[in-house]
Write a structure and sequence with these properties.
heterodimer, A: 78 residues, alpha+beta, B: 448 residues, alpha/beta, Alpha-Beta Plaits, Rossmann fold, 2 domains, five-stranded antiparallel β-sheet, 12 helices, elongated
Chain lengths: 78, 448
C-alpha cells in the first residue's frame, strides 16, 4: 500500500498511474484510489511490490505500508 | 493506594493489640506521624512470625533454603491495612518510616482477583440488557433511532435476527461489500457478523444497521473469515463519504469493529515506516482519525490475546509485546475489553498498554453470554463486548448528535462514568471500568 498526496483533480487512479508512471498491471484496479484524508488530500493505492522501488521516493508518495491480514476476535476456538 | 503497614513489637503496639479495638488503637498511634494515612479499623491486625537467619549473618528472607520462624512475642510483627491518597503516597510513607520507630515497612496491597475462562455462557442477553439499563434508556428515547450503526465484520443475516424476535432496520443501499464479494447486504451467511449485529441491538434495537462485510474479502489462505487491512481502508473510505454527505448537524454514525491482527509477524516491525501496529501514519490509522474527525464514534475490540490459560490459541504475541495494537489502540477510538455479566474479567481479554495510545483498553463491556445463537455456546470474545458497547453509544446518539457532543467528548464521558472495577481508577485489564449507560445518560443531560 502506498499513499499519494495530490490535488483532488489528479486523484483518480488513472491520473495517479500517469503521474507516477505505473502500468495497469502494477496497480490493483479493484481497490482504486481511496481518499484517506480529505483535509490533507491523501489517497491510498495498492501497488505491485516490483514497482515500489521505482515510485516509492517520488514527491508526495509515502510507503510502502504493511497490508496485514485481519481476523475476527470471536469466541476463541477450543 | 492500599497499603499494609508492618509494625514491630513494642510496648505501644502490644498495648494497642491487647485493647478491645486493636486496629483502632494502632490507627490512633500511627496517624499523627502520617496524616494522609487512613487505617482500616475493620481489618484485624495480623501477626506475622519472624523468619530466623539459619546462621549469623545469613539472610532470614532467603526463600531457597529451609526456613525457621519465631513466634515469640518480642519477635513477631503485625500488619494493619490502610489507604493513602495517590497524590501523597511518597511523602506519607517517608513520614511513617522516618518518624515512627515501630514501622518496619509499608507494602502495597494489590487487588487480587481470579479471571474467568468461561466454558459456558454466564447469563444471557437479557442479563446484559439489565446491566445496561436498557429500559431506562428506551424510556428516554435512547434506543438507536436515527443512528447509522455500521457492523464492520463478516456480514449480517437479517433473517436470523428476525427469527430471534428482533426487528432490525438495515440499509442495504448504504451497506458495502469488498470487491469480489457477491453476497447481498443483510443476506450473508449466519456467522460472526450476525452475532455482532445481535449484540449491538441489545441497547440499540432501533438503530439502522449498515452491513460492511469486510471479513468476507477473498482470503489468501484457508480461513473463511478474514480480510486484508487494505479492505478496511476501502470500507472506511465508503463510511467517510457517507458521513461527509450528511449535514454536520445530523451526523450520528457508530462503527463497530470486532477484528484485528493476531500476530505481529503479519506486519513490518515497529520503527519501520511501513509498520501498521505502532504507526499513526499508516493509511488505515489515518483514515480512522479522518472518520472520527467527521463525527463518527468508532469502537474496536481490544483483542483476545490476554493471559494464559484463557488466551486465544491464534495469538502470536510474545510475553513482552503489547497486544492491543494498530487501530485497536487508536487514541480516537474506544478500545473495549471483555467482562462477563457478573463483571468478572475474561482472562483472554487483551491487556494494555496499547501501542498507538497507552491507556487501552478504554472500558470493558459484556461478553460470554447466551444471545445470538450463532455459535453453540456464548456470544464470546471481545468481539461480543465491542458491539454491546457500540449499541450503548448508538442509543445515546439517538438524542445527542455528534454536533452536540463530539466523539472525543462522548468518549471522555463514557470513561468518566464507567463503573470502576479491579484496581481503583484506571487499569490495563478493564480500562476505566464497565460501560455504565445510566450515569452516562445523566451526565449527557447535564452538559446539554
Amino acid at each position: 500500500m502506498l499513499t499519494v498526496a495530490c490535488d483532488p483533480s489528479r486523484a483518480s487512479l488513472e491520473a495517479i498511474k500517469a503521474d507516477l508512471g505505473l502500468s495497469d498491471d502494477e496497480v490493483d484496479a479493484s481497490f482504486g484510489s481511496v481518499e484517506i484524508d480529505p483535509e490533507e488530500h491523501r489517497y491510498a493505492i495498492l501497488v505491485e511490490e516490483s514497482a515500489i522501488g521505482r515510485v516509492g521516493g517520488k514527491a508526495g508518495v509515502k510507503g510502502p505500508f504493511a497490508n496485514p491480514p485481519i481476523e475476527p476476535f470471536g469466541p476463541p476456538p477450543d | 493506594m492500599r497499603v499494609l503497614i508492618q509494625l514491630r513489637s513494642s510496648q505501644r503496639t502490644r498495648s494497642a493489640l491487647a485493647s478491645a479495638a486493636p486496629a483502632a488503637g494502632l490507627a490512633e498511634s500511627l496517624t499523627p506521624a502520617a496524616p494522609g494515612l487512613i487505617v482500616d479499623a475493620t481489618y484485624e491486625p495480623v501477626e506475622i512470625p519472624a523468619p530466623q537467619a539459619p546462621e549469623p549473618g545469613a539472610n532470614p528472607f532467603a526463600l531457597n533454603q529451609p526456613m525457621e520462624f519465631s513466634f515469640a512475642r518480642s519477635a513477631v510483627t503485625h500488619v494493619v491495612r490502610g489507604e493513602i491518597a495517590d497524590a501523597t503516597v511518597s511523602e506519607t510513607i517517608s513520614a511513617l518510616m522516618v518518624s515512627d520507630p515501630d514501622v518496619v515497612g509499608v507494602f502495597s496491597d494489590p487487588v487480587i482477583e481470579s479471571m474467568v475462562c468461561p466454558k459456558q455462557p454466564v447469563g444471557n442477553h437479557k442479563d446484559v440488557a439489565k446491566r445496561l439499563d436498557v429500559s431506562y434508556l428506551e424510556n428516554r428515547g435512547m434506543d438507536g433511532r436515527n443512528v447509522k450503526l455500521a457492523i464492520v465484520d463478516s456480514g449480517i443475516n437479517k433473517a436470523h435476527l428476525e427469527s430471534l424476535g428482533r426487528k432490525p432496520k438495515l440499509d442495504t443501499g448504504k451497506s458495502w461489500n469488498p470487491p469480489k464479494v457477491t453476497g447481498k447486504p443483510g443476506r450473508h451467511p449466519v456467522d460472526h457478523g450476525t452475532m455482532c449485529a445481535f449484540d449491538a441491538g441489545i441497547a440499540a434495537p432501533k438503530a439502522t444497521l449498515l452491513d460492511y462485510a469486510l471479513l468476507l474479502a477473498p482470503p489468501s489462505g484457508p480461513k473463511v473469515m478474514s480480510g486484508y487491512l487494505s479492505d478496511g481502508v476501502l470500507g472506511y473510505s465508503k463510511l467517510l463519504r457517507l458521513i461527509r454527505d450528511t449535514a454536520p448537524g445530523r451526523r450520528r454514525m457508530v462503527v463497530s469493529n470486532s477484528w484485528g491482527m493476531f500476530s505481529p509477524s503479519w506486519d513490518f516491525p515497529p520503527g519501520h515506516p511501513g509498520n501498521y501496529s505502532d504507526n499513526p501514519a499508516h493509511p488505515f490509522n489515518v483514515i480512522v482519525a479522518s472518520l472520527e474527525r467527521q463525527g463518527a464514534d468508532i469502537l474496536f475490540a481490544a483483542g483476545n490475546c490476554g493471559r494464559s490459560p484463557c488466551i486465544d490459541g491464534r495469538c502470536d504475541f510474545k510475553r513482552n509485546q503489547r497486544a492491543i495494537c494498530g487501530a485497536n489502540s487508536h487514541p480516537k477510538v474506544l478500545s473495549v475489553g471483555g467482562i462477563d455479566t457478573k463483571r468478572r474479567l475474561i482472562g483472554y481479554s487483551s491487556r494494555g498498554p496499547g501501542r498507538l495510545a497507552a491507556d487501552k483498553p478504554d472500558i470493558s463491556s459484556y461478553t460470554e453470554f447466551a444471545g445470538s445463537r450463532v455459535y453453540p455456546g456464548s456470544d464470546g470474545g471481545t468481539s461480543a463486548a465491542c458491539p454491546v458497547a457500540a449499541g450503548v453509544v448508538a442509543a445515546v446518539r439517538s438524542k445527542y448528535s455528534a454536533a452536540k457532543v463530539p466523539p472525543a467528548k462522548l468518549r471522555g464521558l463514557i470513561r468518566k462514568t464507567a463503573a470502576d472495577l479491579g484496581e481503583p481508577g484506571y487499569d490495563h485489564d478493564r480500562g476505566w471500568g464497565a460501560i455504565n449507560p445510566r450515569p452516562l445518560a445523566e451526565e449527557l443531560a447535564k452538559v446539554n
